[in-house]
Amino acid sequence: MLKQPIDDHQSQFLEAGQRVILREKDALRQLADSLDESFAASVSLLAKTQGRVIISGMGKSGHVARKIAATFASTGKPAHFVHPAEASHGDLGMMTRNDVILILSNSGETHEIADIIAYSRRFSIPLIGVASQSDSTLMRQADVGIVLPKVAEACDENIVPTCSTTMMLALGDALAIALMKYQKFTPSSFREFHPGGALGSKLSKVSDLMHSGDKLPLVNEYSAMSEALIEMTQKGFGVAGICDGHGHLTGIITDGDLRRHMDGLLDHKLSDVMTRHPLTISHDALAVEAVGLMNNHQVTCLFVTGQEEPRRVLGILHIHDCLRAGLV
Asked: What is the pTM of this model?
């Protein structure tokens, strides 16, 4: 796309946009520098909680709270957003003594959050407060308070919630990721909460995509060559796994192996033709790892094995399976 010359008005718009982003960048830097023991205490409190994280806030803080709740939930910590006004009309009953409450309020004096604060104190529900005023009602009542740096909003008039909400959003991410590290939340765990979409595909396990049971092209190492050819033809993977009497994989025969032994092929023993110590992958590996392995070794399929018995075949994975899953 060709860039058009910028006129004076457009130049002013560009400068205004850059100024906003740089101001928010500076606010985030100040937030990072200000994190102290209260942040660590908040993560510890979240980690100890047996119930859910109840997150609340009014106005723009409420929109940020919704996103933070979604981030917690997707990283293994059950959480949901409670609107402070709705809380005053019955939704307080959604909170239990096993939960922890996280309230966002730049001033710490938003009147709509008063009922949630009072409810948390009445029933001894742990409360984490986030505000820029350390002596505000919210911060005085909270069990743990995280003070946001006092920075101007990104607009010249200093009235539109911008830098303050950006800091809240980043703080929520920081809490969620720190908790995720503490709980040793892995990509495989993440997959459980994201089974759909591109992200879910990338986090698919080999066991999610592999073929197993009667679909496996396997023959005993003492079988005739004709049996291996029939198995390869019927199963359609272009490969046959050769197993010993214990069902352990000892080698594979590929289309390439057959072409290299065409002269008197049916008279050959399987052990004379097969490739020993074939490339395999564990059933609990990520499918993207299998794709990388196949690409690096220029093969189109892998036999899948277990961890307890590394040579026992559990399945087979073809590059086409990964292609259908959107991994290639």
From this structure: 0.63
